[in-house]
C-alpha cells in the first residue's frame, strides 16, 4: 500500500451509479483528504472485495439491482461485523433509515444532503475506527511490557518501568494522524519523547517545532499559517507558515498551555476542519502534518478555570502521555549521572571523573524540581571545577542543600516519616489506588507497575469495592 494513502485502512464505496461514485470519491479526497478508497457497483462485487480484507468502512447505496443495499448491510453484519457501515441513499424515508440502523448502520445520509454533512459523517467514522485500532495496538504494546522498536528511544537514558510503558504507548500511537498531548514537568525530556514519536511515525516530512509561549494572536497566526504578499504593512513577500513547512511530517507546538484564548480558537479550527488560510488569502490550504503538543501546565486545571477551551483540550488529548518526574524514577539516577559525566567530560576536554559511590543515593533523596535538566546542569558544573580523578560531592551537596557530613536520606523508604505505620491491608490499598491513578485506570498497566498479574489486581480491586461488613 502506498504511504500516501489515507486512512491506513480501505474505504469501500458501493453504488450502481458510476457518476455518483466518481463524485463522492473526489469530494472525500478534496474536502477530507481521504484517498484510500475503492469503489464498486454491486453487492456481489462488494463482498468479493470485503473477503480480501483491509476494508474497515463501507459506504453503501440502498437502491441497487440484484442485491439491495439493505441485503448487503445484513450480509456484511454477519460476515464482517467489525466493518463500520454508512448508508448514503437517494431515499429520504424515515422507515428506511430505521431499518438500516437496526441492521447495524453507523449513520444514514441522503444524497441530496449538503456535502459538508456527508463528509463530516464519514470523517467521524474514520476517526472512530482510527481510535479503535490505535487503542487495540496500545493495549497490546503495554501488555508486552515495552516498545517493539526500542532503538527509537535510544537517546533517552532510563531503566524505569514507568518510562518503558511510556515508550510502548508512544510507539503504539506514533502513526496515528490524531493529535498527541505530551505532559510533564519542566526538564523531564518531553521534546525527546516527541522526537521519538516523529521518528516512529513513518512520515517522510520534517518535524517543525514552534514554542508558542509569548506569541500574541497575530504572531501565532503568522507563524503557523504564513501570509501572502501585501497581507499587512511590511509583508513585501509571501511567507510559508510552519504548518506548511511541516507538510508530510510533524508539527510540534511546545508550551501549548500558554496559548491565548484567541489563538486557541485558531488551533481548534485547524484541527477540526483540517485546513487553514494564510493571512491575507481567501484560498484554503490543507493540514498535511500530524500535530503534537506539549506542556508543563495542568491543562485540566486550566480548562476548569476557563483559561483553556474545553473543546480544544479534549481534541488535543485524543492521545495523551505523561512523562513522570525524575523523583518518581530514582532508578534512573545512576545511569543518568554516568551519562552526563561522560558527556560533560567530552564537552570540557577532560577525562571522565569517578563519582563517589554514595553520590547517586544522595541525589536520589533530592526532589529535583528541574528534573533531568537540573541534574545535567549540576553535573556540568561539578565536572568543570573538579581538579582530580575522584569527583567531589561538594558542588552537588551545595546545589541540593545538604552538608557533606549529613547522612543520606533514605530515598527508598516512604514510611520513614510516618508517625503510625499503616497495616499491610492499608498499604496494599494505597499502592493499588496509586497504581490505578498513574495508569489512568488501565488495569494491565497498573498490574505491571505493581509487579503482579492483571487477574490478581482485578481480584484485589473487587475485594476493595466490597463493603467492610461483607
Describe this structure in words.
The chain is an alpha/beta fold and 470 residues long. It has four domains: 10-132, Rossmann fold (3-Layer(aba) Sandwich), CATH 3.40.50.2300; 145-324, Rossmann fold (3-Layer(aba) Sandwich), CATH 3.40.50.300; 327-400, Helicase, Ruva Protein, domain 3; 424-465, Arc Repressor Mutant, subunit A (Orthogonal Bundle). It is 46% helix and 12% strand. The protein contains 19 helices and 14 strands. The chain has helices at residues 18-32, 43-51, 69-79, 94-102, 115-144, 161-173, 190-200, 217-225, 242-245, 261-273, 299-304, 310-316, 333-348, 359-364, 371-385, 394-400, 424-438, 443-450, 454-465; strands spanning 10-14, 37-40, 55-60, 84-89, 107-110, 180-183, 207-211, 226-227, 239-240, 250-254, 275-276, 285-286, 290-295, 319-322. A five-stranded parallel beta sheet has the order 2-1-3-4-5, sandwiched between helices. Helix 6 (161-173) crosses helix 7 (190-200), helix 15 runs antiparallel to helix 16 and helix 18 (443-450) packs across helix 19 (454-465). The longest helix is centred in the N-terminal third of the chain and has 30 residues, at 115-144. The protein is globular. It starts with 9 loop residues before the first strand and ends in a 5-residue tail after the last helix. The model has no long low-confidence stretch (mean pLDDT 87).
Amino acid at each position: 500500500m502506498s504511504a500516501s494513502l489515507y486512512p491506513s485502512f480501505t474505504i469501500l464505496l458501493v453504488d450502481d451509479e458510476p457518476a455518483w461514485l466518481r463524485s463522492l470519491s473526489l469530494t472525500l479526497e478534496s474536502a477530507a483528504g481521504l484517498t484510500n478508497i475503492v469503489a464498486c457497483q454491486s453487492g456481489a462485487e462488494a463482498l468479493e472485495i470485503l473477503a480480501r480484507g483491509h476494508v474497515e468502512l463501507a459506504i453503501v447505496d440502498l437502491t441497487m439491482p440484484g442485491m439491495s443495499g439493505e441485503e448487503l448491510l445484513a450480509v456484511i453484519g454477519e460476515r464482517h461485523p467489525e466493518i463500520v457501515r454508512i448508508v448514503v441513499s437517494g431515499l429520504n424515508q424515515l422507515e428506511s433509515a430505521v431499518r438500516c440502523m437496526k441492521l447495524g448502520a453507523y449513520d444514514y445520509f441522503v444524497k441530496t444532503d449538503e456535502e459538508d454533512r456527508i463528509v463530516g459523517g464519514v470523517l467521524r467514522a474514520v476517526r472512530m475506527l482510527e481510535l479503535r485500532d490505535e487503542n487495540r495496538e496500545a493495549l497490546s504494546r503495554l501488555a508486552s511490557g515495552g516498545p517493539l522498536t526500542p532503538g527509537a528511544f535510544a537517546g533517552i537514558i532510563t531503566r524505569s518501568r514507568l518510562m518503558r510503558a511510556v515508550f510502548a504507548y508512544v510507539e503504539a500511537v506514533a502513526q496515528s494522524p490524531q493529535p498527541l498531548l505530551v505532559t510533564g514537568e519542566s526538564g523531564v525530556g518531553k521534546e525527546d519523547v516527541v522526537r521519538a514519536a516523529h521518528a516512529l511515525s513513518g512520515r517522510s516530512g520534517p518535524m517543525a517545532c514552534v514554542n508558542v509561549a509569548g506569541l500574541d494572536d497575530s504572531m501565532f497566526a503568522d507563524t503557523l499559517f504564513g501570509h501572502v504578499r501585501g497581507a499587512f504593512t511590511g509583508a513585501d513577500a509571501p511567507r510559508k507558515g510552519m504548518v506548511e513547512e511541516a507538510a508530510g511530517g510533524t508539527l510540534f507546538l511546545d508550551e501549548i498551555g500558554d496559548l491565548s484564548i484567541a489563538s486557541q480558537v485558531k488551533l481548534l479550527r485547524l484541527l477540526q476542519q483540517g485546513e487553514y488560510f494564510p493571512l491575507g488569502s481567501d484560498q484554503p490550504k490543507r493540514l498535511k502534518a500530524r500535530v503534537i503538543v506539549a506542556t508543563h501546565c495542568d491543562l485540566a486545571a486550566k480548562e476548569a478555570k476557563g483559561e483553556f477551551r474545553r473543546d480544544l483540550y479534549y481534541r488535543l488529548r485524543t492521545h495523551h502521555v505523561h512523562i513522570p518526574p525524575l523523583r518518581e524514577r530514582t532508578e534512573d539516577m545512576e545511569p543518568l549521572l554516568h551519562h552526563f559525566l561522560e558527556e560533560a567530560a567530552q564537552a570540557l576536554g577532560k577525562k571522565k571523573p569517578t563519582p563517589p559511590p554514595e553520590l547517586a543515593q544522595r541525589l536520589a533523596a533530592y526532589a529535583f524540581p528541574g528534573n533531568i535538566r537540573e541534574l545535567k546542569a549540576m553535573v556540568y558544573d561539578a565536572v568543570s571545577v573538579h581538579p582530580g580523578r575522584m569527583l567531589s560531592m561538594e558542588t552537588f551537596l551545595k546545589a541540593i542543600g545538604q552538608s557533606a557530613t549529613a547522612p543520606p536520606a533514605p530515598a527508598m523508604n516512604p514510611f520513614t516519616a510516618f508517625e503510625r505505620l499503616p497495616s499491610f491491608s492499608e498499604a496494599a490499598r494505597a499502592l493499588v489506588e496509586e497504581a490505578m491513578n498513574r495508569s489512568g485506570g488501565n488495569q494491565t498497566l497498573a498490574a505491571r507497575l505493581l509487579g503482579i498479574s492483571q487477574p490478581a489486581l482485578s481480584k484485589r480491586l473487587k475485594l476493595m469495592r466490597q463493603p467492610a461488613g461483607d
